[in-house]
Amino acid sequence: MTVFELALRSMRQNVKHYYLYFFALNFSMSLYFVFTSLQHDQAVQNMTYPSVDFFAGFQIAGVMLIIIVGIFSISANGIFLRRRSREIGLYQLIGLSKGWVARYLIIENILIGLGALLAAIIFGALISRLFVLILLNLLDLEGIVEIGFSVPAALKTLMVYLLIIVITSIQMIWRLYRSTLIDLFQADKRPDLDKPPKAVTSAIFALLGLALIGYGYELSGHINKQLFVNALLMLGSIVAGTFLLFRITIRWCFYQFRKHKDGHLGLTNSLSVAPLMHHTKANANSLTLITLLSAMTITMISMAYSFYYSVEQETRRDLPYDFMFENERQEAQSFKKDLEKEGIDVKHHVVEAVLTMGTILNPNDESDKFEESLLWLPAEQLKQTGADINIPPDGEVILYNAGASLAGDLDEQSKRYPTKIELEQHGQTVMYTLRTLMERNIMNLDAPGNQLLVSEATMDEIAKEMAGTPDYKKIRFDTYQVPDKEELSKASSLYNAKYVSDDQLTYDFYTQYKEVLQTTGLLIFIAAFLGLVFLISTGSILYFKQMTEAEQEKQSFKTLRQLGFDVNMIMKGIIRKQAIVFLLPLTIGMLHSIFAIKAASFMIRSNTMFPASIAMTIYTVIYFVFALLTIRYYRNIVKTLCHNHHL
Fold first, then answer.
1. How far is CA 519 from the centre of its chain?
2. Angle in degrees, CA 446, 450, 456, rounded to 5
3. Is residue 356 pLDDT above 80, yes or no?
4. DSSP of 57-69, one letter per residue?
5. Which PANTHER family match (predicted)?
6. pLDDT tens digits for 611-621?
7. What is the spatial distance between Cα 458 and Cα 492, in angstroms, rounded to a whole number?
8. CA 281 to the chain's CA centroid
9. Which range is least confidently modeled, 263-267, 429-433, 527-531?
10. CB 461: neighbour CB atoms within 10 A?
11. Residues 199, 201, 203, 206: what is their CA dihedral angle, to the nearest 10 degrees?
12. Which of 2, 172, 397, 453 has the fewest CB within 10 Å, making it most exposed?
């Protein structure tokens, strides 16, 4: 039998071990092929706004997929090599050289890789159309896009597979040549219980792990004060704390539990707690990685979901009017006539405002004092446009700023109010009371200066007293609202075609809304599918590790059967163990993600609880499926041992 024939035979025999690996690898690379195809496809890109950078988005997604697939392949390959150590040792024991064994393993690796490559390209080509339809739906685009087979995407996918085969082959050769026969035959043995951890040292490091995680969580509440430093501290403390948690804290807790039981664990705890006591330390690296990847995935999906579904609300905070003209009476009248000519129903209102220079005082810091541009807007006129506002008392002011949360901590900013606004009027200082801050705009984003709401009487008083001062300016705003969404789309096209110049920064609601919707739609598309790959990869690694542990624990199960314990009694302990194995990284990852979302919440003004709950539910369901697969694998092993015992 040739090396090639032996490799084919081995693949057929090991298909029950490889099927999930093959599926995860195939799914990941199919997505890579789809993303690369979209990256090179001009049809979808031509339907979107120029500000939506499709090429960069899919390029970044492709790089992240390569990293995920690389980590997954190396981890899974290491687990498979460990499981097959006895087989590799037998080949050497019968006289085959390490070079022959290396060739055999590499040929098998290439065959699996080629099979997965062909399946990924075929499957990717078949589902490309579905992915394009999902993307068009997320971007709110209509049209039929024909997706042909992308040769550049296929070549890039081939290059990635070659890279994975090279890396995993080097891993195989390295493992083979640095292992002795004794190492190979003992690799799949269940390790003896480690010595109990030193009480004082372990307790200190166990508490340190919890303290580091707690410190990271505490930082998440005010990360935007010193963003870069606090973000690094938060990330570093949570990563270090998670590692200590899995390597020392959890193991120390298990030993304390056994000590409390005086070593009398009983059958269920012996099959659940006891294996975890000596496997948790060995698996600390992978459990830490899985937990952090889970947290990152849930955070990424939750934030993308929140951005996407709050686009209209967020855009309306910035742009309360569909269209706005500033001191452009002729253009405003022309635009109104164009809309009427097209039969578009529009509400047109004029708002007369005043622009001055002034100082908003900070009562908490007297040195924080500098002049800035102030836009005084009359509440009575704004109410006529349909604005949801209350008219302030004469002499009082309300500041409107949609970007207030992005500028700093809102709680800290709120401590500045009420305060005073100082105006210099021909050598005299006049003060007005700034009552509070509202986190939205009352005039469109491109209006000049800080938007201040006052009564019309107060604005007239300011206009009278500030006339003739430097930078004083009267401003006429022509505002337009188009109630019908379909008509708004037509009005936006007309506005952009005729009234927007390259040298002037202007916004209309519909264009801004569509641009942000497409950007966030692309973000949620990439985040959702990357998250799915993360989930399948981490779930598969946990599954493979439990397969290995199941093989190591066969002798224990056999002994228990000989002592008269039935399948259900043994499975009760195994199910408890799997619940702990899968729930620990999932639960801790979810906790991490909750505080990570809290840390990033200053970037988004809508509620993230609903999208985060959806992401966590999906994550839990898929992890539950992996847990069921693992339990089924254990049950098959125990049943087989039971059958052999009866024979």
1. 15
2. 100
3. yes
4. HHHHHHHHHHHHH
5. ABC TRANSPORTER PERMEASE, ABC TRANSPORTER PERMEASE-RELATED-RELATED
6. 778 888 888 88
7. 35
8. 28
9. 263-267
10. 17
11. -140
12. 2
How is residue 198 annotated by DSSP? P
DSSP at 253: H
pLDDT at 320 over 90: yes
Per-residue model confidence as pLDDT tens digits over 100-117:
888 888 888 888 888 888
Q: In the chain, how long is the greatest CA-to-CA distance?
A: 107
Helices 250-260 and 266-282: angle between axes, nearest 10 degrees:
150
Single-letter amino acid, residue 284: A
What is d(CA 361, CA 420) in angstroms, rounded to the nearest whole number?
6
Helix (H) or strand (E) segment spanning residue 323: strand 323-326
Q: What is the DSSP string of 282-321?
A: HTHHHHHHHHHHHHHHHHHHHHHHHHHHTHHHHHHHH-SS
Angle 199-219/227-244 helices, nearest 10 degrees? 150
Alpha-carbon distance of 183 to 561, in angstroms, equals 29
Strands 419-425, 396-400: pairing kind = unpaired
Q: The pTM is what?
A: 0.78
Angstrom distance (rounded) from CA 335 to CA 323: 10
Where do we find the tokens 């499709």? 54
Q: Looking at beta carbons, which pairs linking 455-458 to residues 24 or more positions away fall under 8 Å?
A: 455/378, 455/379, 455/380, 455/391, 455/392, 455/393, 455/394, 455/396, 456/378, 456/379, 456/380, 456/381, 457/394, 458/376, 458/392, 458/394, 458/395, 458/396, 458/397, 458/432
Amino acid letter, residue 199: A
What single DSSP character describes residue 245? I
Task: Report CA-CA distances (Å) from 625 to 19, 370, 473, 551.
Answer: 15, 60, 66, 21
- With tokens 């959890």, the residue in question is 250
